Amino acid sequence: MASLVVNRCLPLLLCLSGVLLSTCARGAEPDSALALFRAIDERLSYMEEVGLYKTKNQIPIEDLERERIVLLDAKNLAASQGLDPETMETFFTAQINAAKAIQYRYRANLLIQEIPTKTVDLQADIRPALDQLGSDIIRLFAVLLSNDHLLNERDRDLFLATVQRNLLTDADKQALYGAMLEVKLAR
Question: pLDDT grade, residue 1 (50/70/90)?
Protein backbone atom coordinates (compact mmCIF):
# COMPACT_ATOMS: atom_id res chain seq x y z
CA MET A 1 0.00 0.00 0.00
CA ALA A 2 2.92 2.36 0.66
CA SER A 3 3.96 1.96 -2.98
CA LEU A 4 0.44 3.00 -4.00
CA VAL A 5 0.84 6.24 -2.06
CA VAL A 6 4.29 6.84 -3.58
CA ASN A 7 3.05 6.08 -7.11
CA ARG A 8 0.09 8.41 -6.68
CA CYS A 9 1.93 11.24 -4.95
CA LEU A 10 5.22 11.28 -6.86
CA PRO A 11 3.85 13.07 -9.94
CA LEU A 12 2.12 15.63 -7.72
CA LEU A 13 5.26 16.17 -5.64
CA LEU A 14 7.32 16.68 -8.78
CA CYS A 15 4.72 19.10 -10.10
CA LEU A 16 4.60 20.97 -6.79
CA SER A 17 8.38 21.27 -6.55
CA GLY A 18 8.58 22.57 -10.10
CA VAL A 19 5.75 25.02 -9.56
CA LEU A 20 7.16 26.34 -6.30
CA LEU A 21 10.63 26.78 -7.80
CA SER A 22 9.29 28.50 -10.90
CA THR A 23 6.95 30.63 -8.80
CA CYS A 24 9.87 31.94 -6.79
CA ALA A 25 11.69 32.81 -9.99
CA ARG A 26 8.87 34.47 -11.96
CA GLY A 27 5.77 34.97 -9.83
CA ALA A 28 2.57 32.94 -9.86
CA GLU A 29 1.35 31.92 -13.29
CA PRO A 30 -1.33 29.55 -14.54
CA ASP A 31 0.99 26.63 -13.66
CA SER A 32 0.36 27.43 -10.00
CA ALA A 33 -3.39 27.26 -10.49
CA LEU A 34 -2.98 24.00 -12.40
CA ALA A 35 -0.88 22.55 -9.56
CA LEU A 36 -3.62 23.54 -7.09
CA PHE A 37 -6.32 21.95 -9.24
CA ARG A 38 -4.25 18.78 -9.63
CA ALA A 39 -3.72 18.56 -5.87
CA ILE A 40 -7.48 18.85 -5.31
CA ASP A 41 -8.11 16.17 -7.93
CA GLU A 42 -5.46 13.94 -6.36
CA ARG A 43 -7.02 14.31 -2.92
CA LEU A 44 -10.45 13.41 -4.30
CA SER A 45 -8.94 10.42 -6.13
CA TYR A 46 -8.61 8.64 -2.78
CA MET A 47 -12.31 8.83 -1.97
CA GLU A 48 -13.35 5.56 -3.61
CA GLU A 49 -10.70 3.79 -1.52
CA VAL A 50 -11.96 5.58 1.59
CA GLY A 51 -15.49 4.47 0.68
CA LEU A 52 -14.27 0.90 0.14
CA TYR A 53 -12.53 0.87 3.53
CA LYS A 54 -15.62 2.23 5.27
CA THR A 55 -17.87 -0.27 3.51
CA LYS A 56 -15.67 -3.25 4.36
CA ASN A 57 -15.40 -2.12 7.97
CA GLN A 58 -19.07 -1.09 8.29
CA ILE A 59 -18.15 2.49 9.17
CA PRO A 60 -20.50 5.38 8.32
CA ILE A 61 -19.38 7.66 5.51
CA GLU A 62 -19.91 10.75 7.63
CA ASP A 63 -17.40 11.15 10.48
CA LEU A 64 -18.15 14.49 12.09
CA GLU A 65 -15.30 14.23 14.60
CA ARG A 66 -12.74 13.65 11.81
CA GLU A 67 -14.27 16.51 9.80
CA ARG A 68 -13.90 18.80 12.82
CA ILE A 69 -10.20 17.88 13.09
CA VAL A 70 -9.59 18.39 9.36
CA LEU A 71 -11.31 21.79 9.43
CA LEU A 72 -9.41 22.93 12.52
CA ASP A 73 -6.07 21.82 11.04
CA ALA A 74 -6.90 23.57 7.76
CA LYS A 75 -7.78 26.80 9.54
CA ASN A 76 -4.59 26.71 11.61
CA LEU A 77 -2.36 26.04 8.62
CA ALA A 78 -4.19 28.67 6.57
CA ALA A 79 -3.57 31.27 9.28
CA SER A 80 0.13 30.34 9.42
CA GLN A 81 0.33 30.77 5.63
CA GLY A 82 -1.26 34.23 5.70
CA LEU A 83 -4.67 33.05 4.49
CA ASP A 84 -8.04 33.88 5.97
CA PRO A 85 -8.94 30.84 8.11
CA GLU A 86 -12.70 31.29 7.72
CA THR A 87 -12.60 31.26 3.92
CA MET A 88 -10.30 28.24 4.00
CA GLU A 89 -12.80 26.50 6.29
CA THR A 90 -15.51 27.21 3.71
CA PHE A 91 -13.37 25.67 0.98
CA PHE A 92 -12.47 22.60 3.05
CA THR A 93 -16.13 22.13 3.97
CA ALA A 94 -16.96 22.08 0.26
CA GLN A 95 -14.10 19.65 -0.37
CA ILE A 96 -15.32 17.38 2.44
CA ASN A 97 -18.85 17.48 0.98
CA ALA A 98 -17.51 16.51 -2.45
CA ALA A 99 -15.48 13.72 -0.86
CA LYS A 100 -18.52 12.37 0.97
CA ALA A 101 -20.59 12.53 -2.22
CA ILE A 102 -18.02 10.35 -3.99
CA GLN A 103 -17.95 7.91 -1.08
CA TYR A 104 -21.75 7.64 -0.92
CA ARG A 105 -21.99 7.08 -4.67
CA TYR A 106 -19.23 4.49 -4.57
CA ARG A 107 -20.92 2.69 -1.70
CA ALA A 108 -24.19 2.69 -3.67
CA ASN A 109 -22.36 1.18 -6.66
CA LEU A 110 -21.05 -1.57 -4.40
CA LEU A 111 -24.63 -2.66 -3.74
CA ILE A 112 -24.83 -4.01 -7.30
CA GLN A 113 -21.18 -4.99 -7.77
CA GLU A 114 -18.84 -7.39 -6.11
CA ILE A 115 -16.86 -5.65 -3.39
CA PRO A 116 -13.19 -5.47 -4.46
CA THR A 117 -10.87 -7.70 -2.48
CA LYS A 118 -7.97 -5.27 -2.45
CA THR A 119 -6.75 -4.26 0.96
CA VAL A 120 -6.89 -0.61 1.90
CA ASP A 121 -5.68 0.86 5.17
CA LEU A 122 -7.27 4.18 5.98
CA GLN A 123 -5.12 4.95 9.00
CA ALA A 124 -1.70 3.86 7.77
CA ASP A 125 -1.83 4.73 4.08
CA ILE A 126 -4.74 6.86 2.95
CA ARG A 127 -5.16 9.35 5.80
CA PRO A 128 -1.46 10.44 5.81
CA ALA A 129 -1.64 11.03 2.06
CA LEU A 130 -4.87 13.02 2.47
CA ASP A 131 -3.34 15.10 5.25
CA GLN A 132 -0.28 15.87 3.10
CA LEU A 133 -2.42 16.80 0.11
CA GLY A 134 -4.57 19.03 2.31
CA SER A 135 -1.44 20.87 3.46
CA ASP A 136 -0.20 21.13 -0.13
CA ILE A 137 -3.53 22.60 -1.22
CA ILE A 138 -3.35 25.30 1.45
CA ARG A 139 0.25 26.14 0.55
CA LEU A 140 -0.65 26.36 -3.14
CA PHE A 141 -3.51 28.72 -2.31
CA ALA A 142 -1.01 30.84 -0.35
CA VAL A 143 1.41 30.93 -3.30
CA LEU A 144 -1.34 31.96 -5.71
CA LEU A 145 -2.87 34.63 -3.53
CA SER A 146 0.42 36.08 -2.29
CA ASN A 147 1.36 36.59 -5.94
CA ASP A 148 -1.92 38.38 -6.68
CA HIS A 149 -3.38 35.49 -8.65
CA LEU A 150 -6.98 35.58 -7.54
CA LEU A 151 -8.95 32.69 -8.95
CA ASN A 152 -11.61 33.89 -11.31
CA GLU A 153 -14.10 32.69 -13.86
CA ARG A 154 -11.37 32.21 -16.48
CA ASP A 155 -9.70 29.61 -14.25
CA ARG A 156 -12.99 27.71 -13.93
CA ASP A 157 -12.59 25.92 -17.28
CA LEU A 158 -9.12 24.72 -16.33
CA PHE A 159 -10.45 23.53 -12.96
CA LEU A 160 -13.35 21.66 -14.56
CA ALA A 161 -11.01 20.04 -17.08
CA THR A 162 -8.49 19.06 -14.39
CA VAL A 163 -10.79 17.66 -11.69
CA GLN A 164 -12.04 14.50 -13.35
CA ARG A 165 -13.21 12.17 -10.60
CA ASN A 166 -15.63 9.61 -11.99
CA LEU A 167 -18.27 9.98 -9.27
CA LEU A 168 -18.07 13.76 -8.95
CA THR A 169 -20.93 15.56 -10.66
CA ASP A 170 -20.73 18.90 -12.43
CA ALA A 171 -22.77 20.40 -9.59
CA ASP A 172 -20.21 19.08 -7.07
CA LYS A 173 -17.39 20.64 -9.09
CA GLN A 174 -19.21 23.96 -9.40
CA ALA A 175 -19.84 24.08 -5.64
CA LEU A 176 -16.18 23.28 -4.97
CA TYR A 177 -14.97 25.96 -7.37
CA GLY A 178 -17.40 28.48 -5.92
CA ALA A 179 -15.86 27.88 -2.49
CA MET A 180 -12.39 28.28 -3.99
CA LEU A 181 -13.34 31.74 -5.27
CA GLU A 182 -14.00 32.78 -1.65
CA VAL A 183 -10.50 31.92 -0.35
CA LYS A 184 -8.52 35.08 0.39
CA LEU A 185 -5.51 36.38 2.24
CA ALA A 186 -5.86 37.28 5.91
CA ARG A 187 -6.42 40.97 6.62
Answer: low
